[in-house]
Design a protein that fits this description.
Bound molecules: heme C
Shape: globular
Number of domains: 2
Distance between the termini: 77 Å
Largest sheet: 6 strands, antiparallel
Number of strands: 12
Length: 445
């Protein structure tokens, strides 16, 4: 009798294991995806944090060694670097700086960026205030060449004089690059440090029982906001709330959500760059894919994964910034949640049936087809910025939307074929839905 019972229990255990492993992988995200949605207007900043000040990452390091270490190794910690403290942060070749440059290395105090391009901050008094200006040349790290840089040539071009020497970084850059600047106007710490995402930490550092904001605790739609504050192109919110335009905001137009702190409702501070399907702008192709960098948020809000509650940090570790799958390469980043014939797709039984490429081919990499490189870091850079739209863009859509063929995933690898040929391939594979044979429907001129 005892033996039978033991066997029965073992059988039950095996059965539940079997059921567990045959569940779609997305099941483990059930709690996240079904969390209560609190809406975009609710203030989620902990009460105890409202009177807190910014204290800098050194304070946090004491108690959070590991998070500090992860963050220190990421690009966020390297966005703004002090040349006077360590001259090796300069990646440009200053011996080749063109003669008509309006700055020298000796004048520059901070570097901005390094990976794709590097720009230089020079102390200046602008509008009667101690501020910084930008050199009129930038270093393109991808082409390894100096390039002209005119920061005023942007949506706020009517707000500032067309002269780098009169163009302040305080209103147009520093909110996203210095910790604390966005809400206090003080450059508390160079680069994107702990408190950019967790809010001011003086009270928590004194007594850890005082909470700081942790973005993943509530509504997953709201989790994204700590990233959207910077990774989303915007306009000055006052264009909407006070009916102002660039000209009326002379020397004062802000290109970041002025006053925002993590947990507060970002929508009260940020006006996203405008986009309408079918209309190409300076920032987006007509299908909504990025033409420029730092547009991840603008693209992602159109995606079904966003609407269903998948967040930036489901794919990116917020401290290391690396992808959160077990393996950094290959399809693991997506196969973590997606599986073949699963409820969220792909709706084929195997990789090859889904991609129509050999399993080990580059043409079977999820990101190559679903995140094509559509954007550049500067006019003279190669296409390197991967789209965060995720939905597949057909060759016929690329054509109908008037996008350059290189931005199409298929064409990027098959430059010997035309968009029409590639569309035919997809038709032969049976990939087209009825309406995909037509021109893009909504808003198309
Ligand atoms: C004196 C030590 C100490 C310092 C300094 C400190 N923390 Fe903490 N922190 C803690 C402890 C202990 C916890 C765990 C508290 C708990 O689980 O309730 C914690 C928890 C956290 C959490 C998780 C909160 C949650 O709701 O899960 C975050 C985020 C955090 N700290 C960020 C920071 C940041 C940012 C700083 C610097 C501004 C900082 N901490 C400074 C001790 C410290
Ligand atoms: C780019 C935004 C960002 C920055 C910068 C950042 N954090 Fe976080 N941090 C997050 C998010 C988002 C979470 C929630 C992660 C989760 O729940 O998976 C988190 C979680 C934490 C936690 C809770 C434990 C954990 O690991 O999940 C601690 C503690 C913490 N961060 C401390 C720090 C400290 C200290 C720094 C600076 C050295 C820092 N963070 C910088 C976004 C950030
Ligand atoms: C305060 C502004 C700010 C916030 C908040 C912020 N970022 Fe960033 N992020 C940047 C900047 C600026 C860079 C470029 C850093 C560089 O190249 O030095 C960057 C770079 C990155 C990169 C590329 C890293 C690499 O190695 O090239 C990833 C991925 C990223 N951020 C993800 C996130 C995620 C996810 C969040 C939210 C949890 C977030 N960021 C929040 C400003 C921000
Ligand atoms: C709304 C926030 C925001 C504002 C304002 C902003 N940036 Fe950035 N910047 C980012 C983010 C986020 C990234 C990284 C993501 C990406 O490039 O896709 C970035 C990337 C960069 C890079 C490339 C970094 C690298 O390692 O190659 C440079 C250089 C840069 N910004 C300079 C500037 C300058 C100069 C200004 C002001 C004229 C400015 N940014 C204004 C958010 C901002
Ligand atoms: C060769 C290009 C290509 C590759 C590689 C590719 N896909 Fe797709 N994917 C498509 C096309 C085409 C569609 C159909 C789009 C549509 O229905 O509008 C699609 C649709 C999907 C869908 C929507 C649901 C469905 O089944 O129709 C999901 C989810 C998806 N792919 C996930 C993935 C994942 C995960 C990977 C990597 C394992 C991947 N794809 C690799 C081309 C590709
Ligand atoms: C479904 C997964 C997924 C989500 C969600 C996601 N990313 Fe990414 N992201 C990726 C992958 C994959 C890459 C490419 C990494 C590579 O090329 O090594 C990437 C690249 C990036 C980069 C590097 C710049 C570039 O040119 O590609 C930045 C910055 C970034 N993501 C920010 C974000 C932000 C901010 C969010 C939320 C708005 C977000 N990501 C949401 C998967 C994701
Ligand atoms: C954390 C889980 C998770 C990860 C990681 C993930 N996805 Fe998804 N994905 C989802 C969910 C949930 C949906 C929504 C399914 C639906 O609406 O039918 C989805 C839907 C999609 C769709 C179809 C809807 C759309 O908006 O286009 C595509 C394509 C897709 N994912 C591609 C990818 C790719 C490519 C990656 C890797 C870079 C990836 N996913 C990583 C959870 C995830
Ligand atoms: C990342 C690169 C890459 C992408 C993206 C890609 N392919 Fe391919 N494709 C290849 C390679 C490599 C081969 C060679 C055979 C193989 O590996 O399966 C190939 C083979 C093919 C073939 C069969 C041989 C031929 O040239 O006629 C067709 C048809 C094809 N691809 C069409 C497409 C279409 C349509 C898309 C977009 C849905 C696409 N490919 C996306 C790399 C790619």
């Amino acid at each position: 009798m005892k033996k039978v019972l033991t066997l029965f229990i073992v059988f039950l255990l095996l059965l539940s294991l079997l059921i567990w492993f045959s569940l779609p992988k997305i099941t483990s995200y059930y709690t996240q995806l079904t969390k209560t949605r609190v809406g975009l207007n609710l203030d989620l900043q902990p009460e105890a944090q409202k009177k807190a000040r910014f204290v800098g990452s050194q304070k946090c390091k004491k108690c959070h060694e590991e998070n500090y270490h992860d963050w220190k190794g990421s690009m966020h910690s390297k966005m703004i670097q002090n040349i006077k403290a360590d001259s090796s942060v300069v990646v440009a070749d200053f011996s080749k700086l063109p003669d008509d440059a309006d700055f020298t290395l000796a004048e520059a105090v901070y570097t901005i960026g390094s990976k794709f391009k590097q720009r230089y901050m020079i102390p200046a008094t602008i509008n009667g205030k101690e501020d910084f200006r930008l050199g009129n040349y930038q270093w393109n790290s991808q082409t390894e060449k100096w390039q002209h840089f005119k920061p005023y040539k942007y949506w706020y071009k009517d707000s500032y004089p067309h002269d780098n020497k009169e163009f302040p970084t305080s209103n147009t850059c520093d909110g996203c690059h210095f910790t604390g600047f966005m809400s206090t106007g003080e450059r508390v710490e160079p680069a994107i440090a702990c408190e950019s995402c967790h809010g001011p930490g003086s009270e928590h550092s004194k007594d850890p029982d005082n909470p700081v904001f942790k973005a993943s605790l509530s509504d997953p739609i709201r989790t994204n906001e700590v990233c959207f504050q910077c990774h989303m192109r915007n306009r000055d919110k006052r264009i909407e709330t006070q009916n102002l335009n660039a000209k009326k905001m002379w020397m004062n137009a802000k290109d970041y959500p002025d006053g925002y702190e993590p947990g507060k409702p970002l929508i009260s501070y940020k006006l996203p760059a405008p986009f309408a399907l079918g209309k190409e702008t300076k920032e987006f192709w007509a299908n909504g894919a990025a033409k420029k960098n730092r547009t991840q948020g603008n693209e992602y809000i159109h995606d079904r994964m966003y609407k269903h509650g998948i967040t930036c940090i489901n794919c990116h570790d917020p401290h290391k910034l690396t992808n959160t799958a077990q393996k950094p390469e290959g399809n693991d980043a997506c196969i973590k949640c997606h599986s073949f014939s699963s409820i969220i797709g792909p709706h084929q039984d195997t990789l090859e049936q889904h991609t129509h490429h050999k399993a080990e081919s580059k043409g079977s990499l999820c990101t190559e087809c679903h995140m094509p490189k559509t954007a550049k870091h500067t006019g003279k850079s190669p296409l390197t910025v991967r789209s965060h739209l995720f939905d597949f863009t057909y060759p016929a859509q690329t054509k109908a939307y008037g996008m350059p063929p290189e931005t199409n995933a298929c064409y990027a690898c098959h430059k010997d074929k035309s968009l029409d040929d590639l569309q035919d391939n997809l038709k032969e594979w049976g990939k087209l839905e009825w309406e995909k044979l037509e021109l893009p429907p909504i808003g198309f001129k």
